[in-house]
């Protein structure tokens, strides 16, 4: 039964949805100051959706036209694109490199002027002649448009990737055949043994440009950029790339447009809870029963029809893993390939993190080794000091003076948590690069609401997108309606972020999204796990105890990364600066909470590694038992040590390295007002749920 409550101003937040009574109550009962102000604004009816601001050169919005388009038409961007195209093109084009060198600057400046003035018109690729005159024509025509295409893709690729789902794998940064195969294996191992294979009839990119730009506008609000893309598509300049004449290793606007145009279909299938993988036009859907196969086919056909597309009817196959089938060149059976068999090995050495959580333990160093003694003084662990990069001490664990000095001298982070798992603090040695000038600049930034707002908006946007990513990977058919409903609500909240004029409004919208997200996530855990929603201070159940403990560890990671980046963790961007908490660390954590902690906790609950028996009930709440903490720590470290690519542009490494890299980018965004900060997303990190 739905209880509809009329709240003044609420229709401005979610014009196409209504809130259920218990959900609305949860939203309106938030306790922080910013959320309280937002609650009062909602109740009073004073909340007004601001008029959309026009795109102008003085617009400071992170996703404004000036940011994206100017990055495309800068001489540096065009020169980089020219070098990349000249390197990737066939021999005929590379032979012209020497001739082009003499007038490259003239060529690039003329191209830039044409783009800025709107005079740029691509040339059609058909009807080129061979011979010396044809070679010159190829240089002046083909190269010119390829440079523009490369510059556009470089500017929008990561933004476009952020609005796509986690189930499409072709022609995306860091996502390829191996990742798609691993996802199919994960679905099989989760019990989805009935398989539907299908192929989408993908038209030429020019026919998909309107649908693609509709999706792209969610992250790139740049009319001039859209106009350039339309010109390339209109002239047929993308067809050669779509036909495969482009270098396989180079970015391709045609493939990007195809993925964007198919994103609404991907969203429909993921939101419905189907095990769905798409590689270009090749689709595989894994379900637990035959009836679900038919439902999946019906939904796929309906979604494609809505987009003016269709399946190749002779390419539809219903089969099971018992029978075996081939997808993306891999033979699948009930046992092969094995989970993880296709993962590449990486040269990077895994981070060695030591967790000590038994009360009365003592950590000290002796003869080049780190030793952990029990309360009786009996050594429980002895490992080489050089193998340790981080110490996490929970509860009443003592640290000797020698171990403290060694950690400070060698840049080994030591994080202190309470026995309940709350973050207490950490040792920060001389490795911190904070300078007086940077601290002054950071403080000035933290005090300026208008400077903070674009970055704060980007942080909230990244968090909500990653929440949608987690729900898409976690949803199941039994909960398809609720998952789809909440994902649509979260996407609606993302659109509302552009209208928030203060960080308080952003925090209010973030609170609304988090309540929606956790209400849905709580329905996706096993039935014997009590998880009615997010509860803190204290946690009321096993799932919340695990989330709180994981967030505390992640907070320590974020503080250490900020100190290494030369930032003061107390000076926040989204969260207000205060002496009582490391506000900037909470900002940095936001995008990583769903990807690293939430996914880990749900995976542990679903695989029964974390069970109700691991909850320790006390008078004031529920906390993880010692065994529960060990299980969570192991799962958390498995996640943090996972090598991912594509989550951040041009960067690959473990999730822990991503946190540190993101802290460096955050420092740059704070210190350089013109720099556009980008957030991480799911990348190619394989995660079984």
From TrEMBL:
<keyword id="KW-0255">Endonuclease</keyword>
<keyword id="KW-0051">Antiviral defense</keyword>
<keyword id="KW-0460">Magnesium</keyword>
<keyword id="KW-0378">Hydrolase</keyword>
<dbReference type="InterPro" id="IPR050646">
    <property type="entry name" value="Cas1"/>
</dbReference>
<keyword id="KW-0464">Manganese</keyword>
<dbReference type="GO" id="GO:0004519">
    <property type="term" value="F:endonuclease activity"/>
</dbReference>
<comment type="similarity">
    <text>Belongs to the CRISPR-associated endonuclease Cas1 family.</text>
</comment>
<dbReference type="InterPro" id="IPR002729">
    <property type="entry name" value="CRISPR-assoc_Cas1"/>
</dbReference>
<comment type="subunit">
    <text>Homodimer, forms a heterotetramer with a Cas2 homodimer.</text>
</comment>
<keyword id="KW-0479">Metal-binding</keyword>
<feature type="binding site">
    <location>
        <position position="590"/>
    </location>
    <ligand>
        <name>Mn(2+)</name>
    </ligand>
</feature>
<dbReference type="Pfam" id="PF01867">
    <property type="entry name" value="Cas_Cas1"/>
</dbReference>
<feature type="binding site">
    <location>
        <position position="575"/>
    </location>
    <ligand>
        <name>Mn(2+)</name>
    </ligand>
</feature>
<dbReference type="InterPro" id="IPR042206">
    <property type="entry name" value="CRISPR-assoc_Cas1_C"/>
</dbReference>
<keyword id="KW-0238">DNA-binding</keyword>
<comment type="function">
    <text>CRISPR (clustered regularly interspaced short palindromic repeat), is an adaptive immune system that provides protection against mobile genetic elements (viruses, transposable elements and conjugative plasmids). CRISPR clusters contain spacers, sequences complementary to antecedent mobile elements, and target invading nucleic acids. CRISPR clusters are transcribed and processed into CRISPR RNA (crRNA). Acts as a dsDNA endonuclease. Involved in the integration of spacer DNA into the CRISPR cassette.</text>
</comment>
<dbReference type="InterPro" id="IPR042211">
    <property type="entry name" value="CRISPR-assoc_Cas1_N"/>
</dbReference>
<feature type="binding site">
    <location>
        <position position="510"/>
    </location>
    <ligand>
        <name>Mn(2+)</name>
    </ligand>
</feature>
<keyword id="KW-0540">Nuclease</keyword>
<protein>
    <recommendedName>
        <fullName>CRISPR-associated endonuclease Cas1</fullName>
        <ecNumber>3.1.-.-</ecNumber>
    </recommendedName>
</protein>
